[in-house]
Amino acid sequence: MRELRLKAMAKINLGLDVLRRREDGYHDLRMIMQSIFLYDQITLERADAPGISVRTNLNYLPVNEDNLVYRAAKLLMDEFSIGDGLRIDLKKHIPVAAGLAGGSSDAAAVLVGVNRMFALGLAQEELMARAVRIGADVPYCVMRGTALAEGIGEKLTRLPDAPELYVVLAKPPVHVSTGFVYGSLNVDALESHPDIDAQVQAIRDGDARRMAQLMGNVLETVTVPVCPVIAEIKEQLMRAGALNAMMSGSGPTVFGLFDSETRAREACEELGRGNLARNVFLTRFFHNRKREKEAV
């Protein structure tokens, strides 16, 4: 196989709870992860000359080992002593540093692609075991779909597909450091935690409204005070008819879930006309049962 094209799906967190800070500086988490049909496009091309080269459509992204796609390719090519070279073309559509796991998903897609291109024969679970060396979200991005994530995010339980809903994403023109958010979080001072178990049950029951009602993200206690525009976007989405609205990951992207495509489209257009968000998207959940048709 000389060339392979892949889609790296973004993710949102339907629920995000932080249980404790670990001695190694990481945090123990409980999250419900959901892939959405917003994706980066990655083309892998086999080369005769050894080495890895990366091209992107964003000139501020690194094209060396500071880019996760390079590290993902190198991890497998070193382990399996692959002598051929690899060219990686990365077209970014997922906003960068947005709480949508774009970089992690890109790395996951490259792991899947290198495994397929060079016929390494690794099962998905074997790829996920290697993926955690690149980042905590990368194993989930290999799995995709709807999942419960625990530990630092690497302990995954596949869930039934979440109920079908429309997703309006809005990324405000602010930057939030993930390290700052987690470093500033006082877990002992949290007054409430999302009921992740109840949300899992709502997903199992196919109850979209209850799943949405149970959404919660404890990281908002840090991010919203320093970026109040997040709360403004949430309020606008709720006024537009969202079942619920929440920040994804450590932010700053906000998403609203809608059971009406018409209301979702109107909300997206309204946000697009305003100045609260720099990037606005209307999309939907990506489900594993559609993997073969949509995820190549």
Descriptive notes:
It is a single chain. By secondary structure, this protein is of the alpha+beta class. The protein has 2 domains: 3-159, Ribosomal Protein S5, domain 2, CATH 3.30.230; 166-284, Alpha-Beta Plaits. It contains 11 helices and 11 strands. The chain has helices at 68-79, 102-117, 124-131, 138-143, 178-184, 196-205, 208-213, 220-226, 229-239, 261-273, 291-294; strands at 3-21, 27-47, 52-56, 85-91, 146-151, 155-158, 166-171, 216-217, 244-247, 254-258, 279-284. The strands form 2 sheets. Strands 1, 2, 3, 4, 5, 6 and 8 form a 7-stranded mixed sheet that branches. It has a 4-stranded antiparallel sheet with strand order 9-10-7-11, covered by helices on one side. Strand 9 (244-247) and strand 10 (254-258) form a beta hairpin. The protein is globular and about 55 Å long. The two termini are 15 Å apart.
Number of helices: 11
The gross shape turns out to be globular
CATH architecture of the largest domain: 2-Layer Sandwich
**How does the major sheet shape up?**
7 strands, mixed
How far apart are the first and last residues' alpha carbons, in Å? 15 Å
How helical, in percent, are the residues?
25-40%
Q: Summarize model confidence as the mean pLDDT.
A: 94
Low-confidence residue ranges = 291-296
- Share in β-strands: 25-35%
Question: How many domains make up the coordinates?
Answer: 2
| Helix vs. strand class | alpha+beta
Order of helices and strands: EEEHEHHHEEEHHHEHHEEHEH
Name of the CATH class of the largest domain? Alpha Beta
User: What name does the CATH topology of the largest domain carry?
Assistant: Ribosomal Protein S5, domain 2
Number of strands: 11
Radius of gyration: 19 Å
